[in-house]
Amino acid sequence: MTAENEIDYGKLTKRIIFMDNDHRHAKMTIRLKHDKMTMAAFFRHLMTGYIEADERIMSYLDDVRPISQKHKKKSKQLRDKGQATLKDFGLSDGEVENIFDLIEEEHPEL
Question: How would you label 12-48 residue by residue, b for 16+ Cβ within 10 Å and e otherwise?
């Protein structure tokens, strides 16, 4: 599911704030201008990727988050296996989403 297709509920006034130093803020501002992207759009895209467990985001997080090497290896193996399974069945992301919707309809207690 992409941000455009996401269910619109609640207020659009939630702020997500964190602190960083002036130098990194300036570097990010310059980079965003270079890429013709607003800071809000950048963070919304990253949040969508994280929420939807986008492989590219999850792989990067495996590299930077403080978890054991064993857990990183297992996480990567499971993602790779899942991707291989999807390819074996020839399922697109939309078809996978439909399968989960059907399962939810049949078994709402899950």
Answer: eeeeeeeeeeeeeeeeeeeeeeeeeeeeeeeeeeeeb
Instruction: Please write the tens of the pLDDT for every residue from 70-86.
Output: 776 777 777 777 777 77
Q: Which residue has the tokens 């990727």?
A: 49
3-class DSSP assignment, residue 72: helix
Which contacts (CB < 8 Å, 24+ apart) does range 48-54 have? 48/2, 48/3, 52/1
The whole-number pLDDT of residue 15 equals 84
What's this model's pTM, rounded to 2 decimal places?
0.53
How far apart, in whole angstroms, are the C-alpha atoms of residue 61 and residue 50?
Answer: 9
Spans of the chain below 70 pLDDT? 1-8, 67-69, 72, 93, 96, 108-110
Q: How far is CA 4 from the centre of its chain?
A: 14
Q: How many helices (H) and strands (E) does the chain have?
A: 5, 0
57 contacts: CB under 8 Å, gap ≥ 6: 46, 49, 50
